[in-house]
Amino acid sequence: MARTSRAFRQMHAIHAWTGAVTALALYVVMLTGAVAVFARHDLAAWADPAVNAETDPGFSAERALRLSIARFQAETGAPAGSAILFFPQPGAARAHVSIMAAAEDGAAGHDGVDYRLDAGRGTDASAVVGRAAGDTERLYQTDWTTPLGSFLVHLHTDLWLPPPWGRYLTGLLGLTLLISALSGLVIHRRLLRDALLLRWPRGRSARWREAHKSVGAWGLLFNLMIGLTGTLLSFAAALLLPIVAVIGFGGDVAEAERVFVGIPPAAGVERPTADLDRLMADVSTRSPGFRPAFLHVHHLDDAAAVVDVTGFDRGAVSQAKYRFDGATGAFRSRLDGLADDAALSKTLAMLLSLHFGNFGGGLVKAAWALLGVASAGLVLSGLMSWVERRGRLVAGPVGSAAGARLAAPLAAQAGKPAGRRAGAPAGTPGRAPSGRGYGLLARLAGGVGVGVPLGLAGVMAAAHPMAALTPSSAAATGALTLVFWSLVALACALAIALRPLASVLGGLLTAVAICLLAAVVARGFLAGVWPWHSLAEARWSVVMTDLVLVGLSGGLAWAGLRLARLGLARRAAGERAGAVVP
Amino acid sequence: MATADQGPTRPLFPRRRLRLALAVPGALVAALAVTAGLSLYAPVGQVDRILLPVILFPFLFVGLFFFALMAPRVRWVGLVFALLILGHGALIARGLG
Fold this sequence. Notes:
The complex is a heterodimer.
Chain A: H1 2-36, H2 42-47, H3 61-76, E1 80-86, E2 94-101, E3 111-118, E4 128-135, H4 136-142, H5 147-158, H6 165-187, H7 191-196, H8 204-218, H9 220-248, H10 253-261, H11 276-286, E5 291-298, E6 306-312, E7 320-325, E8 331-335, H12 343-356, H13 362-395, H14 401-414, H15 435-469, H16 473-497, H17 501-527, H18 531-536, H19 540-577
Antiparallel strand pairs in A: 1-2, 1-5, 2-3, 3-4, 5-6, 6-7, 7-8
Helix pairs in contact in A: 1-5, 1-6, 1-13, 1-15, 5-16, 6-9, 8-9, 8-13, 9-10, 9-12, 13-15, 15-16, 15-17, 16-17, 17-19
Chain B: H1 16-41, H2 46-70, H3 74-96
Helix pairs in contact in B: 1-2, 1-3, 2-3
Keywords (chain B): Membrane, Transmembrane, Transmembrane helix
Transmembrane segments (chain B): 20-44, 50-69, 76-96
Transmembrane segments (chain A): 12-39, 168-187, 217-250, 366-387, 440-463, 475-498, 505-526, 538-561
């Protein structure tokens, strides 16, 4: 019994400390992830009105590829080794063709150029609307969608830290999410009751705790899934796959790549690759309702060429791959996973789809976004609950001067500074944060908690002005990054410096509301596209985005003003009673 | 870590700093060693021999993390981690050599 109780207390401490140490970074990743699920298509269509909603009926995979190859060869003078075509998706007719130069040993090259195509214009020369050059990692970072989409995706995947450190950090955050979710499952023994009962107890600390438990119970499976898939996504490509491939194949990287991707080396004999439109028609015949995601041509115009068409069969959660002989166009096989029909390969492919919710359409994405916001709230409520509890143990309500005044004589009596560890025996040196330290942490958490939404709203508001001011998408993305971090830093500084905290946070929430509304207005003025224009053109994803922005703006303005008034009223009441309100 | 409520004789996490070092960097190194070594002996096909260790990595790390913090004796943790790292290190050296 004693052992069980001790293990329970240990698990509780692990849950609390893991969450407390990583909460703020995890909050940024989770909240931006909730927005980033829309980044590639819906927000791309919203952020760039030049992107047509519908793909031109004349759009041709074959012509898009040949147009891009011709440009690549004219620009670089290098032979094209392989090519990947990312198909336009419903609601945003943006396509990409990445051309990779051929490596000398016939293996896949890793340097190339990515061309952005507006598939709404068909596939003539005017369809190419942008380019980015570099290695595969650079191409992934640069501009897959729009500056707004690129900013959001990379804030979520690597916090804009240099590769591979950003990925390592988000991978570690995924592991801590797994640890928090598993330890939370063990310590919350009345999980079902917590999930079904929503209580609103008296006291700020108890309310944070109840909110944390309820949201944690409802979002447990989602958080386990996000933690696991996020860790795999971050670590797999940047660290694990290269290590395992090299060791599992005795250091022969080319052989590892060949087995993993399932593609033999180039033959070195020139032979034109089969018409891609014919292969796409073949896939549609084999799988009616197939939704293509991308097409990969290995060893372009070589006798050993292989064409993989990857996408979703109707109603499928994981992607399937249709493989063709590139030289003859003959169908070879349908693959469930990465390289063969192995169960694990299929599992991994399914896990990756699960992380982004890119199956089942808009409703699944909306559910993922809501769960992501709830999980971000879960992380923040856990931190606030921890801060309140620890701060109260040390020196009364966090950050209160009254609490600090109470703690000071007690500390003096014990002959220790006021900040010694709560409950520690007299004589233990004080190394834990003082009551003032916890107060500062609470303010910082509040600042980040409202600062990240403020940064995201500011980025939405700045997206169109930046696009108008800077022709380069890389410069626009950099400017958006600056806007985001400046607003987060400003919110933190205000939350730390000004009092009362509730009024500051209320004011910042109102600023978020203003930025969200400004985003819709800026789009209307600068792009000349107001919500009613999108409605008339039946661009539903754009209409939904505008509606969500306006709705959120109204809700946050109401909540912000109410919170600001509440803070001022509390301070006035506190001053009348002679107390200091944090 | 939270030693406060347990009294001076029995802290919740004895030898806290050592356990923390074992739980975070130690568990990471051990999980990476096992992940890398698994690709040499996992009884599955060629492609899954790459994928199985990759998918197992988060589970390995989390298991070792909890073990490092909660095991009754920290020397058991050290022993298990040393065996995992050295054993798989030797396997990897043999595989690459």
